[in-house]
Amino acid sequence: MSPLTILRIEKLKTFGNVAGSDDHVTRNRETPNADPTRENVRLIGGEDERALEEIVKEKIATLLHRPRHDAVLCTEMFLSASPEYFRPKDPSLSGQWSDSLMQQWAIASRDWLAQNYGSKCVRAELHLDESTPHIHAYIVPLNEKTGRVSHDAMFGGRGGQGRIKLSKLQDSYAAALAPLGIERGVKGSKATHTKVKEYYQAVNSEPLTAVITNNQLAPTNFESARNYVARIQSDDQFQAINHQLADRAFMQERLERAEQRARASEKERQRLEEIVRSLELKTQQLRDLALEDVAWELGLNCDRTHQSRWKGHGHIINIDGPKFYDFAPDQQKGSGGAIDLVMHVNNCNVRQAVVWLHERFGEAGAIGAAIAKAKTVTAEIIQTEPRPQFAPPVEDKSKWTAVHNYLTQKRGIPENFVELLHKRGLVYADDQQNAVFVMRNLGLYPQAIGAFLRGTRGENNTFKGYEKGTKRREGWFHFHLGGQPTDPVEKVVLLKSPIDAVSFAMLEYQRLGDVPPNRTLYMAVDNPKSLPVEQLQNIPNVQVAFDSDDSGNAAARVVKELLPQAKRIKCKAADWNQQLLDYGQQLRQQQQQQQEQEQEQDDELSL
After folding, report:
1. Per-residue pLDDT at 509 exceeds 90
2. Mind spelling out the 3-state secondary structure of 58-90?
3. Regarding beta strands 491-495 and 315-320, do their DSSP bridges make them parallel or antiparallel, or are they unpaired?
């Protein structure tokens, strides 16, 4: 079984309690179970030989307020580990341990005390004169912000919040000892040493002890071994021993399994609590610092007559939530946020204010203040900065013939449909001889908010891309066929590019011999992240006609998750434009064969 951490705290509410505890720890009082030949070690506070009571009084005297009559003046903390750590070979050897293991534990515990409590930990005594090494540490629970002693603020009081603080304290100590192989005990366990002892006493109780001392089970004179064994096995008390040993083995096995499950649950709990702490830290970083705390760190004092007003360094600052206003005659300025407050009082720039906050509130506090400042600046920019408007590429009519020939001859799109798209303003030529496919929103009166460009100049032009300023999440190249303009859309076909969208529509037109009977929307969506889910989720027939390669299949799966009614449509060729070209070639071959047959028939008739 892995060794466990041990941490207990005790409240010392009177200076008499402090003195009494000090007498016990320093062995000024007789301690029967202590070995006088062993010497204890003072880990913290060794340079101060005064009585603990005097040290605590001096600490409390630095506070602004005297302690209440029921206040905790000092907190005694007991630290140790289970015997399995100090004497791994035989934990039962009381008073013995490995010096190297003991020293590693003592150093880790001392460092943990110093890191967590600093000068508030006025003394820590390592006891080596009892059965197992342990530490008595004394912490004065100072709260600088309130100017009082507060055990509850540091360690938690009664109720749920107190239990949470104590649990986090146990977690913190266990984390410090984890490199030594020492684990935290099961959280919330009700087990005690007394109960464990009682359990084993019950296991070893009657009838086992009575059976062992019962002379009736002794062999008789001249009794053979065979008869003796038979007599013993049939004896009721012997059967009781067997049952008890079986029960003991069963209970021991159940106990070990329960401990294993508890350890696994505890590790999982610690892992989840670490995630929660990480999320809490991130949440803290998203919040600005309380301006009251910043004002206190800046050296300002709260006006007792006006709790929201802070004075000092020539300032009279009223704090109202995240905002402040300086009423001093030569200031008369208001703003908001921790960074602005530091800049105002310290008369410094943003960078200096962030560094100052980091020194007082740590990295999380500085980041939180910086994020809050960034949010404020961002909100101001959003409210005041004009929105950039999309400027479509300038049309060059002299280049249209070349673009027209590219779309009809190289891409196989019927000439009448190319002209129809051109007249509707959905495709035109720019000064670089690019085919400009206009991208629009899906409103009742679609507006151009982007453009997709396809290069046409030269034999092997592969240029394609979006015009600068295009809003890819808000606009798409799309057009309708079938039905009436006022009819609701009953079918949507999603394709990867404008040329694919046109090619698919022409394939359907040629297959049907006419436009689709119902209102159909063809649109180019090159990535599922730009899919207008809200506008398409109520359309009953959605066809996903992306390419049949791995990328197209992956994108189709995402679309089907977003639009469960969607159906996958795959093309036979590399893409839909290639399938249109192949279909056109087949038609030309069929027409040529038909012409040849007609010519043969004419030749036969002429003979």
Report:
1. no
2. HHHHCCCCCCCCCCCCEEEEEEEECHHHHCCCC
3. unpaired
* Residue linked to tokens 């300025």: 333
Hey, what are 231's tokens?
Answer: 């007599």
**Distance, CA of 192 to CA of 86 (rounded, Å):** 20
CB 453 within 8 A of CB 439: no
Percent of the chain with pLDDT over 70: 88
Domain shared by 366 and 508, yes or no: no
Burial of 503 (0-12, 13-18, 19+ CB in 10 A): buried
Query: Tokens representing 124?
Result: 């820590």
pLDDT at 566: 96
Residues 76 and 178 in one domain: yes
Look up residue 7 and give its two tokens.
Answer: 């941490």
Q: Let me know whether 57 and 159 are in one domain.
A: yes
Final residue in a domain of this structure, among 384, 410, 434: 384
Integer angstrom CA distances of residue 379 from 372, 374, 376, 382, 469: 11, 8, 5, 5, 22
Report which secondary-structure segment, H or E, holds 99. Answer: helix 99-117
What is the value of pTM for the model shown?
0.52
Any residues with CB less than 8 A from the CB of 171 and at least 6 apart, and which?
184, 270, 273
Q: What is the DSSP letter of 409?
A: I
Clarify whether residues 371 and 512 are in a common domain: no
447 lies in the same domain as 525: yes
Give domain status of residue 531, yes or no: yes
Same domain? For 348 and 490 the reply is no
Above 60 in pLDDT, residue 78? yes
pLDDT attached to residue 192 = 38
Both tokens of 119, joined, read: 């000068």
Query: CA 157 to CA 151: how far, in whole Å?
Result: 8
Does residue 601 fall inside a structural domain? no
Question: Which residue in 72, 92, 101 sits closest to 14, CA to CA?
Answer: 72
Q: Give yes or no for a contact between 476 and 523, defined as CB atoms under 8 angstroms apart.
A: yes
Q: Are 471 and 516 in contact, with CB atoms under 8 Å apart?
A: no
Burial-class residue 226 by CB neighbours within 10 Å (0-12, 13-18, 19+).
exposed
Is the Cβ–Cβ distance between 514 and 482 less than 8 Å?
no
Residue 169, domain extent: 5-185
Give, rounded to a whole angstrom, the gap between the first and last alpha carbons of the chain: 109
Residues 459 and 349 in one domain: no
CB atoms within 10 A of CB 247: 11
Pick the range with the lowest mean pLDDT from 29-38, 123-132, 217-226, 394-403: 217-226
**Residues 108, 114, 119: CA angle, nearest 5 degrees:** 160
- Mean pLDDT of the 79-93 span: 89
Confirm whether 479 is domain-assigned.
yes
pLDDT of 275 > 90? The answer is: no
Asked if residue 352 has pLDDT above 90, the reply is: yes
Q: Which residue has the tokens 């060729």?
A: 573
Q: Assess if residue 228 is contained within a domain.
A: no
Share of the chain above pLDDT 90, in %: 55
The confidence band for 223, taking pLDDT boundaries of 50, 70 and 90, is confident
The residue among 128, 151, 185 that closes a domain is 185
- Helix H or strand E segment including 435: strand 434-440
Residue 414: C-alpha distances to residues 107, 287, 522, 578 (Å): 85, 60, 17, 14
How many distinct structural domains can be found in the chain? 3
